[in-house]
Design goal:
Low-confidence stretches: 1-46
Helix content: 40-55%
Order of helices and strands: HHEHEHEEEHHHHHEHEEHEEH
Structural class: alpha/beta
Radius of gyration: 28 Å
Largest sheet: 5 strands, mixed
Number of strands: 10
Strand order of the largest sheet: 2-1-3-5-4
Length: 366
């Protein structure tokens, strides 16, 4: 009878899926029949129990929106419900909490960064930008997230992991933590209003929005940040990383293309600038121009920038050529089949490889 009573009690708990408050000391509280709260919760929280992600309510920001989307890309939290609240008693019930709660403890899945004691960065190379909730989730779940997005084994995931942080996640971390990307006294020459964080912020219900459905808007924001992250991850995994071998081959054989070693010829158009700066150090090269065939079948000669993201070049195409096109440019340079030279001198075009190479060779000496 006693055994039957205990079994019936457990069945009732499981069937009702009733809530049991969280416990901090296991097996101290005992249910009638000698079964602990922890044991009943384990019975209750089987494979069908839905996980819950806790984050704060009110105005939402890019970091926790992205953190929630990333968690949905993991096996553990793929179908988790998102609960937006600041009530501590409710947050204590969550399976994982991001961007709220004033606790950072990966062992209990608490990922807040607002407390004064929090100083974590992504790694020892990133000493300025502290992690936001997005960076925290990426740091601890990023490898799995990347593999679930790319779905390929033929990828250097360790390299991809750092590329995506440097070229996407760090921006979210920096903006959320108030880290400027230029000196504080610098006056921007124009406004940038299309950054991901700004697009997310505009989805918050406005002050005069009568409907005010913040949770629906939060879901829309998750879709936007998810599309952005998938696009960036797939670009670096499937376009950027495979291009390295093409750039390496071009720099390795640069003396075959021109005795100066200052001109490289890429066998196809591809993302080359970031790779060039890395490979130059390895091969002790100093390239000024890259020549390649564009997607339309004509050829380009492009000046190497001072930095991958810079508009300033190591040696721009000659000023006398800039802004000139077609036959007028051919007459000026003596190179047949010229198409254009950009007004800033960072790129020019010709109908053939020979024409593009000739422009590059002439530019070296001008």
């Amino acid at each position: 009878k006693i055994l039957a009573s205990r079994l019936i009690g457990l069945q009732v708990v499981a069937a009702c899926n009733c809530f049991l408050p969280p416990i901090t000391t296991r097996n101290l509280l005992r249910l009638r029949g000698g079964c602990s709260i922890q044991q009943v919760r384990m019975t209750q929280s089987g494979s069908d129990a839905k996980k819950r992600i806790g984050t704060h309510d009110g105005a939402f920001h890019c970091d926790e929106v992205l953190a929630c989307w990333m968690l949905h890309q993991t096996k553990q939290f793929a179908d988790a419900e998102i609960v937006r609240t600041r009530e501590e008693n409710k947050l204590s019930e969550m399976d994982i909490v991001v961007d709220v709660g004033a606790v950072f403890d990966p062992s209990t899945h608490r990922y807040d960064h607002h407390q004064k004691s929090f100083t974590d960065t992504f790694d020892e190379k990133h000493v300025v930008t502290k992690l936001s909730s997005a960076g925290l989730i990426y740091k601890y779940f990023g490898q799995e997230i990347l593999q679930n997005i790319v779905k390929s084994v033929d990828v250097n995931y360790e390299k991809l992991y750092h590329l995506v942080y440097d070229n996407f996640i760090e921006e979210i971390d920096a903006v959320d933590n108030g880290v400027q990307c230029y000196a504080a006294d610098a006056v921007p020459k124009y406004k940038v209003s299309t950054m991901l964080g700004q697009r997310v912020a505009r989805l918050n219900p406005s002050w005069n929005d009568q409907s005010k459905k913040p949770d629906e808007q939060f879901q829309k924001a998750m879709q936007i940040v998810g599309d952005e992250m998938e696009s960036i991850v797939n670009y670096y995994a499937k376009a950027f990383l495979p291009a390295r071998s093409i750039v390496y081959e071009a720099i390795s054989s640069r003396l075959d293309d021109h005795p100066s070693g200052k001109i490289i010829v890429l066998k196809t158009a591809c993302p080359w600038k970031d790779h060039l700066f890395e490979i130059e150090k390895e091969l002790q090269a100093n390239v000024l121009y890259a020549v390649y065939e564009d997607q339309g079948g004509s050829w380009r000669v492009q000046a190497v920038p001072e930095r991958p993201e810079s508009f300033h070049c190591r040696k721009a195409l000659p000023e006398a050529w800039r802004g000139i096109r077609d036959q007028a440019l051919s007459d000026l340079t003596g190179v047949q089949g010229c198409i254009f030279v950009h007004a800033t001198g960072f790129i020019g075009g010709a109908q053939t490889r020979e024409g593009a190479m000739k422009l590059a060779e002439m530019a070296l000496d001008m």
